[in-house]
Amino acid sequence: MNIKSTIWLLPLLLFACNKEKSDASKNIDTIISTDTAQVVQHIEPQKTIVKQYENQRFRQVTLEKVADNKFRVQGQAQVFEATFNWVVEDGHNELKKGYVTTDAGAPEWGKFDFTIDVEKKEEYSTLNLILFEASPQDGSRQYELPIPLK
Q1: What stretches of the chain adopt beta strand conformation (E)?
Q2: 3-class SS letters over 75-110
């Protein structure tokens, strides 16, 4: 091979090597080795879309399933005396209920973060978490925010 051919191939090889590096940063490679062959499998990164729930009193509410029957709920609430209630229902029964205190009361938006551990009574039922503010006058539910637990 003469010098002219080597000089001509050098930029081509450098370009090809740089191209592979930039593509590699976008993909995750899994290399599976056997005695006779090596297989490279490209895995695209997963993009998680987080659904947010909101109404007049709750905003940026997210739900994360952390175990089979355990859910983490985060968000902001603009509620009287920085307290709101929640209940988990299956369409027929209230399975669990409680209350949460935020880090600020109305008119400010207070942050909250809590975990719920709840099991279905019936295998094929659908659970819903409902966040709400209790009326200071009569305790009735106001500004209900239903969130399906999946």
Answers
A1: 28-33, 38-43, 58-67, 70-77, 83-89, 94-101, 110-117, 127-134, 141-149
A2: EEECCHHHEEEEEEECCCCEEEEEEEECCCCCCCCE
| Total length of the chain | 150
Q: How confident is the model at residue 5 (pLDDT cuts 50, 70, 90)?
A: low
The helix (H) or strand (E) run that includes residue 18 is helix 3-24
The H or E element spanning position 20 is: helix 3-24
Q: What is the pLDDT of residues 13-42, one digit of tens each?
A: 555 555 444 444 455 555 555 566 555 666
Chain segment 106-138, per-residue pLDDT in tens: 999 999 999 999 998 888 889 999 999 999 899
Q: What is the DSSP letter of 53?
A: B
Q: Work out the number of other CB atoms within 10 angstroms of the CB of residue 62.
A: 14
